[in-house]
Fold:
Amino acid sequence: MRITKDIFILITIILSIILISIVAWVSKIQLYNPTRPLSSFIVLLFLLIAGYLSIHRVKMGGTFSVRDIAAFNAIEEGIARSVEMGRPIHMTIGYGSISSSMAPQYIAGLGILSHVARMAGKYGAKLITTLGVPEVIASVEELVREGYASAGKPELFDPVYNVRYLTDQQFAYASAVQATIVRENVGANIVVGPFYAESLIFMEAGNMVGAFQVAGTARETQIPFFVLVADYSFIGEEIFAAGAMASGDKESLAAIRGQDAGKLLSIALILLGILMLITGYSLTDLLNWVWKFG
Amino acid sequence: MSLIVKRVIPQLIVSIILIVMIVFYFFYVNKSVAGVFSAWDKALSDWAIIIMAFALMVGGADIFRYHLIQIRKAGMKQAPFSIVTILLELVMIAFALIGFYISYINPESGISITTQPQFAWLYTNVYAPSDTAVYSILLFYIASASYRAFTAKNPTAALLLAVAVIVMLGNTSLGGLIWPGMLSLRDWIMTVPNTAAFRPITMGAGFGAITLGLRLLIWREVSWLGRRE
Structure:
């Protein structure tokens, strides 16, 4: 019953958008921002709808396979290895302003941190989380506390040891993380989130102490450093998929199908663009069309 | 009550902000509505700055707490570093407060927190050189990481090595002396294969962020809030 209601709401929203757009067009109202191409709004809606329908399919009992992400599976290996060696685990979730376009990467980093905290609780590992953004101190403390509590070991949680806010200054943060990795002699170094020039400093510090390293970011300029130096790396969008995997929720995981729909759409548009160029037209002009009156 | 405070309210705020930001970005209607959108958009940015300012205070207190405990527990190995950190934090706060007081009682003086002479001196002559020094360490790390990575242990690694050599030589005048076409080859590598490899990663990351937005919007992404109840 609820599923029918969900689909009904979705169809109502889509129809309302189309109807309002038609009415605005007929009435010559400047409904959409004239500085933004309307195609970007349509693509956004397409991705949201594709993701939502995938979730709906899983709700209806549908299943689909999701390929393994080696870096995600390696996290447990790294934690178990650290426990065997009697060394702590280090994790950091990125640097920069959380209110910027990097926010999704922080959310993905927090999702992976919650998985790491649960694993640390499961194996009784010592987890050190270093932070360069003060806004997430409370969330991270909560995640680590609940990670240990979910494994039935709340006594292992020590906010002062487990969660360390360092600074919001880039290279002071880099320096402090580096010092933490070396002084604490960490067995696993997990670095997931938005990173800038400090990424390689963290990786090389982990390499110095022989730590098992798992790293990931969606910042394309830093991905090569992680791929070169880390034992396992999340490449680009994988950090967002890993967040859904960490939740263990099939419906969250189903939303990844929306990403696949986006990729298929991109491939189709690239092919269409090539065909149009051959025939003397430009797809870019078509996609850059803006809603404009007068 | 706890569930409402810990789960429902944060998720509701996130959903509302997501919808509102989409509306502000894509819709216009007329000049006055667009003006309202713009004003609210700015208000949201201001709230983010205010939240960050308070979060920094929490962060400062967190650093203070951590190092006080370190002095007590970690012994002489750690204590000197913690003492220096606490002293410098207190000194910077003191000079910042002096700057704030001066700017409050005498706004015409032109002195504010960041321009207070001792505060500015410490920032320029102690913090900035240290910051630059740490940045410069990156050079050695790039060298050591490259040394380990650029070994022709298999065909893919050999290709990486060859491309790296071309790009590195292309960035120096030596490359042009060895072969005049080195610079054009470097430019081609950077603008064609390199860009072709980066674009899908960038697009994938964008799709990933949108999907994450969907999960946040419909309350399926809860890992950032801690364990599921």
Observations:
- Chain B has a mean pLDDT of 90.
